[in-house]
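Today's session is about reading a structure prediction critically. Students often jump straight to the picture, but the first step is always the sequence itself: look for stretches that repeat, for charged clusters, for runs of hydrophobic residues. Only then move on to the predicted structure, which in these notes is written as discrete structure tokens rather than atom positions. Here is the chain we will use throughout the hour.
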Amino acid sequence: MIKLKDLLLENDDIFIPRRIEDRQTKYNNITQKEVNTIIDDFIDKRYNMSLNLIPKEMDDNGYEYGTMQHDGEFVIPDKLKSTPSNLVLDNSRVTKLPDNLTIGTNDVFATLSVTGCPKLHQLPRGLKVTVIDCQASGIRVIPNDIKCDRINLDSAAYITELPLFKNYIETINLTSAVKFKTLPAKFTCGTLFITNTLVEHIPNNVIIKHLRAYRCKHLISIGNNCEIDYLSITNSTIETIPTDIKCKTYMDIKHTPFLYNFLKKYKSPEKVMEELKQLYPYVNEFGI
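Below is the predicted structure for this chain, in token form.
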């Protein structure tokens, strides 16, 4: 919400905008000046702490929290090259972060948190951090050269695809990323959650330690020559799985057309299991 005092008073000058666009531009400028001041102070004093840029709000008990007086749109200026700990921007209207930003050090667990940031559409190139939390954000683009252990895109409603990352990522959570649809061929990661997404096909030659696809109503098939140590596809529409798939740990395929077709043909779970073990020599164990 734009506060009247913020619109009218700045450096003792009176400003009365006539159009709502002028009001928002003025308010964004005020917010940007505040952000620049906070970051200049942070850099000059070399704080060994989190950099927190959250608009102030009241909780249910009337306690005020947050660091910023204003909540207009702003960018993080390029002068910020690194922080020794977390960068927290939750529920702000940040629009851009500097490229090649390093958050944390080699021996410090650090997080970039942009949860609930609708105006941030792209993560910066060359970003280095332990965890990226983009839950319920406006993120649409993720560069392929980011370095992180985990990225949380839960309920990120605008992202549609992932790149072929140059660096290994341990966990990627796309649960309820309702427009997400595409993985690149030869995609590699540790754990991948694609529950409640629009994914239709797992491409060829992926290498994933744990793939979890639950309630994926558009997922029909898996490509050839895939290595998925733990595959869990349940309550989804999967119809075909190539027999060359490699699952060192487990393949869970409950409540899918793929399993129903086997049950219809072989009648009993015991016979289905026998047939699956014959057809899929590289799967260690089945869950039906």
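Discussion point for the tutorial: The longest helix spans residues 20-45.
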